[in-house]
Amino acid sequence: MKKLVAEFIGTLWLVLGGCGSAVLAAAYPQLGIGFAGVAIAFGLTVVTMAYAIGHISGCHLNPAVSIGLWAGGRFDKKELLPYIVAQILGAISGAGILYVIATGKAGFEIGGFASNGYGEHSPGGYSMLAALVTEVVMTFMFLIVILGATHSKAPKGFAGLAIGLSLTLIHLISIPVTNTSVNPARSISQALFAGGWAIEQLWLFIVAPIVGAILAGLVYKLISPEKE
Question: Which is the CATH superfamily of the domain at 2-223?
Answer without folding.
Answer: Glycerol uptake facilitator protein. (1.20.1080.10)
